[in-house]
Design brief:
With about 450 residues, this protein is an all-alpha fold. It contains 20 helices and no strands.
Length: about 450
C-alpha cells in the first residue's frame, strides 16, 4: 500500500547532483552558443566562493571555499567541460566578441582559483578536464585572428575581437600535473607529473601572462603543501623557484624600459586622454599570489613544508629586493645569521637566533618611531618656533656634515681605503630605520 499522509504523497525532489550529472551527459549536445554561455555562467557562479567579486585580491590559503562540496564541484566541472566541448565548434566558426572574451577569461580565473583549494582526486581531475575544454575554446579563435589580420583595416574593425592563444597548452600541463597511473591503483603518474614540472622552465614562465600562470602557480603551491610526497613537493618548489627568477628578469626589463621611456607603464596623454594599461605580466602575481601563499605555508604543522615555503620566500626577497625592502634586512650571506634559514632549522638555538633578530629589528623600529613622535610633539607648539628650530637643526646638520667630510678626508689620507667601509657601516643603521614593523609581524604571525 502507498504511504498515506503528507509524507507519502510528497513527490521526490530531484537531487542537485543528479541534475549536474544529467547536464554532464547532455551538455555536449547544446549547440546554441547563447544557451551554453548562460548555463556555463550559472555553473561558474556555483563554483565561485561566497562574497568574492572575481577581482585581483590576494589569494591565500585561508580564502573561502565554494558553496558546493568536492563532490558537487566535480559534477559541476564535468557539466562545464561538456558544455564547452559542445560549443567549441560553433565558437570556431562564429568567433568571440569582446564581452564573450571577458566572460571566458573570468571563467578561467575562477577555475584557476579552485586548483589551490580542491583536495579530492575526482574534483581535481574534473577541474583539469574543464580547463582543457575551456582552453581549447579560447584558442579555437587563433586561426580566425590570423585570418583577420590579413584583411584591410576597414574589415578588421568589423571582425569580433579574438583571444590570445596559449591557454590550451597551459591546460595540457595542468592535466599532466593531475594525471594518475593506469597500472597501479590510486597512485599518481609520477613520470608525467614530474615531466610536466620540468616543462616549466624560466623562459616558459616568462612567456605566460597573468591568467596563464595563475593556475600553474596555485597547483604548484598545492603540491608543495603535501607533506607526504617528497618528489612532488621538491618538483613544485623547483618550478616555483624558476618562476621567481623569471619574474625578477621581467621586473628588471620593465624597470629598464621605464627608465628609457617613462611613458611605459604610466601612459602618455599627449595624443589621447586614454591612459594605457600596464603590461599583463607575471610580475603582477607577486603580491597577489606568491607572497600570500608563501606566508600561509609557514603555518603548516610539517617542518619540511615550512622549510620549502621559507626558502621560497627568501628567494623572492633576494631576487626582488625592490619589492621586499622591509624583508631584505632579514637575509644574510652568512647562513648562521639568515632569518629564513634559521627559523625552520632543526636545531632549537638556530630558531631562537632568528627570533632574536626579528625582535631586535622590531624594537629598533619602535624606538625610532617613539623618537620621531616625541620630536614632533616638542616642535608642534608654535609654527614660528617650529620654523626656527628647523632652521637651527638644518644649520647644525650642515656644519656636522662638513666636519665629518673634513675628518673623513684626513682619515682617508692616513688610513687609505678604509673610508668606504666605514661609510657602509654607518649606513646600515639608517637602512634599518625604514623597516616596517607591520611587515615583520606579518612574517612572524604564522610562526
Amino acid at each position: 500500500m502507498p504511504l498515506q499522509g503528507p509524507a507519502g504523497n510528497r513527490p521526490k525532489r530531484p537531487s542537485v547532483f543528479r541534475q549536474l550529472a544529467l547536464m554532464e551527459q547532455l551538455g555536449q549536445y547544446c549547440k546554441d552558443p547563447a544557451a551554453a554561455a548562460a548555463l556555463a555562467a550559472a555553473l561558474v557562479a556555483l563554483l565561485r566562493p561566497p562574497g568574492s567579486t572575481g577581482g585581483g585580491g590576494r589569494v591565500g590559503a585561508g580564502c573561502k571555499r565554494a558553496a558546493l562540496d568536492d563532490k558537487g564541484i566535480a559534477r559541476a566541472l564535468g557539466a562545464l567541460a561538456a558544455l564547452w566541448k559542445g560549443s567549441a565548434e560553433q565558437q570556431q566558426s562564429l568567433g568571440v566578441s569582446t564581452a564573450q572574451q571577458q566572460q571566458l577569461l573570468q571563467h578561467w580565473e575562477v577555475l584557476s582559483l579552485l586548483l589551490g583549494q580542491l583536495n579530492s582526486r575526482d574534483s581535481r581531475t574534473a577541474s583539469a578536464a574543464a580547463m582543457m575544454a575551456l582552453g581549447a575554446l579560447i584558442d579555437s579563435n587563433s586561426s580566425s585572428e590570423a585570418a583577420a589580420s590579413q584583411l584591410p583595416p576597414a574589415q578588421q574593425q568589423q571582425q569580433p575581437m579574438q583571444i590570445d592563444s596559449g591557454y590550451a597548452a597551459v591546460a595540457n600541463i595542468i592535466a599532466g600535473l593531475n594525471s594518475w597511473s593506469t597500472e597501479t591503483l590510486d597512485e599518481p603518474n609520477y613520470d608525467r607529473r614530474l615531466s610536466s614540472y620540468q616543462q616549466l622552465q624560466q623562459q616558459q614562465w616568462c612567456s605566460y601572462n597573468r591568467l596563464q600562470a595563475l593556475p600553474l602557480l596555485l597547483h604548484a603551491f598545492h603540491d608543495m603543501r603535501n607533506d607526504s610526497d617528497l618528489a612532488l613537493r621538491q618538483a613544485a618548489a623547483a618550478a616555483l623557484t624558476r618562476a621567481v627568477v623569471g619574474m625578477a628578469e621581467l621586473d628588471r626589463s620593465l624597470t629598464v624600459h621605464q627608465a628609457i621611456d617613462p611613458a611605459v607603464g604610466q601612459g602618455s596623454t599627449a595624443q589621447n586622454q586614454v591612459k594605457p594599461q600596464k603590461p599583463d605580466t607575471l610580475v603582477q602575481l607577486v603580491p597577489r599570489v606568491l607572497y600570500p601563499q608563501s606566508k600561509a605555508g609557514l603555518r603548516s604543522n610539517s617542518l619540511a613544508v615550512r622549510q620549502e615555503h621559507a626558502a621560497l620566500l627568501r628567494d623572492m626577497v633576494l631576487q626582488l629586493p625592490q619589492r621586499f625592502r622591509d624583508l631584505l634586512s632579514l637575509t644574510s650571506s652568512d647562513p648562521e645569521t639568515d632569518f629564513f634559514l634559521n627559523i625552520t632549522h632543526l636545531q632549537i638555538h638556530r630558531r631562537g637566533r632568528a627570533l632574536q633578530l626579528l625582535s631586535r629589528l622590531v624594537q629598533q623600529q619602535q624606538d625610532y618611531h617613539h623618537q620621531q613622535q616625541g620630536w614632533e610633539q616638542h616642535t608642534a607648539t608654535s609654527p614660528a618656533k617650529k620654523r626656527k628650530v628647523d632652521s637651527v637643526v638644518d644649520a647644525a646638520q650642515q656644519l656636522q656634515a662638513q666636519q665629518q667630510e673634513l675628518q673623513g678626508s684626513d682619515a682617508a689620507a692616513i688610513v687609505g681605503q678604509k673610508r668606504p667601509k666605514q661609510q657602509h657601516q654607518e649606513q646600515q643603521p639608517q637602512q634599518q630605520q625604514h623597516i616596517s614593523v607591520r611587515v615583520l609581524m606579518d612574517i612572524a604571525a604564522p610562526l
